[in-house]
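Exercise 3.2. Students should predict the tertiary structure of the chain below and write it as structure tokens, then compare their answer with the key that follows.

Predict this chain's 3D structure.
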Amino acid sequence: MEKKKRKVDEINASSMADIAFLLLIFFLVATTMDVDTGMTRVLPPWVDAEKQKDNTDVNERNVLKVSISKGGRILVDEAEYTAADLIRNRMTNESKLSQETKTFLQSPDRSDKKDTLINGQTYPMSEGVVSLKADKETQYKVYIDVQNELTHAFNDIREDYSQKMFKRPFDELDSDERTVISKLVPMRISEAEPNDQTKKK
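Answer key:
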């Protein structure tokens, strides 16, 4: 007797499209995207041309000029720095460039200080600005290394004030306490428009 072939029931796939659509919506909502925030920089305040003529000496005193040439030559004011001066000492965790920047910002002989009243106590806030200028063909690594050391100097000063005022590292402060330190030590790095040495003279 011939056996009848058993008919296999087909799977109903009509709802698969709806399920796929719902999964797509879920992943779009749940996935976080990395956003490049860039580097935080505070430019120096604008000064009227007439006032600038009278205060040229004062303004120059409060500016630490850092420039990077096409070939990677680094000048801090008139002093020449090398790539080795961007390497941090293992004992102090400071490079020559970051140490020079900290000295400029903290020493009363290097830049003007303004007494700032915070929480009933007066602290000296530096009015110094670091002016960074590079050539358009400056190597990216050299430029970033210089940026890192300049930022490191400001962060070190913030860390010092954090320990002095709140007895805790800056990373452990709450938002209000961080605002106080950031106000006392603003990240004043002014980036000038790069030189273009590729143009024929």
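Discussion points: The helical segments are 16-30, 49-54, 56-61, 96-106, 140-166, 175-184. The first strand starts at residue 63 and ends at 68.
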